[in-house]
Design a protein that fits this description.
homodimer, 404 residues, alpha/beta, Dehydroquinate synthase-like, alpha domain, six-stranded parallel beta sheet, two-stranded antiparallel sheet, 46% helix, metal ion binding (chains A, B), BDH-like (chains A, B)
Chain lengths: 404, 404
């Protein structure tokens, strides 16, 4: 609340905030060959290299990273096997390995799943209790320093204080956050994303857009600077998406998307405003149960969420439609413009190969009630999700039904 | 240079870069009352409080800051008297004071001039030679930690690795840069800017826009992400400017401008691209000689620079005109659109009270040759300035003549 010049209490104006993004970002071609240099710069002597599997090995990336560590005389152990929607089991394994080997630095080589798994390990390795405490709301204030070598533009975990892990005991997918989760350094080489298949690239782009939408839909008013930054980042990925899904070798387009993906989620465009995040919660149930790609899930969830919640601020939806999708403003009936924006989003995601309904994800109607309940009450939640609109279980179920 | 899929060497694509902005930003109402808390967090035990004069004292801000330091048991000395276009004399005085009093933290309370002067002192205090070395090109790798409490949205020094000082021995105005110049923390309370006179507010807005233009005009191609971010920040300040020059008490508008001013200059929207900065060099001659406000000088310089250099990339100027000023694209003759954009910029700056020519700055035609020579050859320069177009002395003189 704020006492303004008109002598009325106004609510929902820009909130006080802290913004602290101390990650050392190294961006560009071949920078991964200097991984050892940066590990040393940030104090690492015994490194856990954490990664997924096949492509990081096949492409020779893992070998280049090891060579770079050896050249600096840095000792390391390794743990592969991270899967999309990373699981708690491997985290426990990583924590044990760090303790046994006296690891003092965690180096993630991969995408959001690998980075998130690395963050969980880095926090768990220096914590006496169960690392899952952090994913039930405990703030992460201490962790081993983390470095990342990013292989897909998507999650933004390379610059964020966040991590999402699926607990195999109940298949809860939950997030943790804290300053200690900001990587010490992140190496972003767009050339590493040139070997990705189009579907994965499109999933990444969808995730980036979702991170921007989660921040865009807010109850905070008069936040022009963050509105405009979000719109600018959306315009960037919308322009570049068809260029990279058609030709993944387009370095320039990959580079623009990669920096946009980091900026979309390090929160410089989300400061001082209420954010939503219900769509992520709704999607997490889908990817936890059906193990679909997080980006693909978001492509199904977000248009449904928009359709259901549009009425809460028609003008905000119209603003997005006009500024980002180039829709004509219908001044007599802005709702038409808002709807046109959602239709444009659906078309766009379809055009880059994203699914648009439950069938496309392998999701089942009979699971809706269970998912809606878990999203609102599972694992410590208290009945509502979302900051723009507080959704109850019945709302979440209705949104799932819009995806059939 | 980059070997692309079409098997041709392409020049001028996005460059490798490092982005490192570790400043702890604390934004919002009354945050200055926690200055002591943040000084302590970043290790300060004996502080130099550096400031300008009148308003910081009259408004009670300085007292609030001292109270906050005392409450944390932090000792301090103070040095006021910073003037706009800060001078080397006071820097030497500050360095001597730091050494004599064993100061370990410099706290700037003021605008860009105060912060820049504080940075120079912080570097000089731990350097054996003359601090001016840094302003002649030596990289700043070591300095006392710096905190800032910002009182005007303008220079962006609260988040930048830069500082500009005028050497009284010859009246050279020069910049220094280096990672050690990024403040440890910066407190941004938009309410502190509500007492500024409209002319100063408008000068600050002009400076912010100039920082964005210096980055926008580039020879690097296909840098959509930074183009769009710059455009978004320009659209923000263009919308908010009339609201704050008409009513400086508009907190929300001041807040949007304040965050835009930081983002405009911490370089997140300037990464990976050639930047220009000739207009700043051209302006620095004016403010060094006539002691005009830096923002006012930029309002005179930039349209002239644009007019002179437009021909080097008509489409980039047209893009700015369409996306930021809402000009119609003239597809038959994009030069008309480019010109319309420059005209819109002139009108905008006039509308918020900025001067538009030499007379408005108190500058004199007879000094043109001297200023053009100093801009290109003074104090170690080697004949050209600018990254978008390399300007020689005769070009700079011609640009000055366009301001008559």
């Amino acid at each position: 609340m704020f006492w303004d010049i008109t002598h009325q209490w106004k609510e929902n104006l820009m909130e006080n905030f802290v913004f602290y993004s101390p990650t050392y970002f190294v961006f560009g071609k071949e920078e991964e060959t200097r991984a050892g240099h940066y590990v040393k710069r940030f104090g690492g002597k015994k490194v856990l290299i954490h990664y997924g599997g096949g492509s990081v090995i096949r492409s020779g990336l893992l070998d280049r990273v090891k060579l770079s560590l050896k050249a600096e005389g840095i000792d390391f152990v390794e743990l592969g096997g991270v899967k999309p929607n990373p699981r708690s089991g491997l985290v426990y394994e990583g924590i044990e390995l760090c303790r046994k080997e006296n690891v003092d630095f965690v180096l993630a080589v991969g995408g959001g799943s690998t980075i998130d798994s690395s963050k969980a390990i880095a926090a768990g390795a220096v914590y006496d209790g169960d690392f899952w405490d952090f994913y039930q709301g405990k703030s992460v204030t201490k962790a081993l320093p983390i470095g990342t070598i990013l292989t897909i533009s998507a999650a933004g975990s390379e610059g964020s204080p966040d991590s999402v892990i699926t607990n195999e005991d109940g298949m809860y997918k939950r997030g943790a956050t804290g300053e200690a989760f900001r990587p010490a350094f992140s190496i972003l080489n767009p050339a590493l994303t040139q070997t990705l298949p189009p579907f994965q690239i499109a999933c990444g782009i969808t995730d980036i857009m979702a991170h921007l939408f989660e921040r865009y839909f807010t109850t905070t008013i008069e936040v022009e600077v963050t509105d405009r930054m979000i719109e600018g980042l959306l315009l960037t990925v919308i322009k570049e998406a068809p260029r990279v899904t058609e030709d993944s070798n387009n370095y320039q387009a990959q580079a623009n998307i990669m920096w946009a993906g980091m900026m979309a989620h390090n929160n410089s465009c989300g400061v001082g405003r209420v954010q939503d995040w219900a769509s992520h919660d709704i999607e997490h149930e889908l990817s936890a149960i059906y193990d679909c790609a997080h980006g693909a899930g978001l492509a199904v969830v977000f248009p449904a969420w928009m359709q259901y919640n549009m009425k809460h601020d028609i003008n905000r939806f119209a603003q997005l439609a006009v500024r980002v999708w180039g829709c004509e403003m219908d001044f007599m009936n802005p709702e038409n413009t808002a709807k046109a924006g959602i239709a444009a989003l659906r078309s766009f995601w379809t055009s880059i190969g994203m699914p648009s309904d439950f069938a496309g994800l392998g999701a089942k109607e009979e699971d809706i009630e269970k998912m809606a309940h878990t999203a609102c009450y599972g694992d410590g939640r208290t009945g509502t999700i979302g900051g723009f609109v507080k959704l109850e279980e019945k709302d979440v179920a209705a949104i799932y039904r819009l995806m059939l």
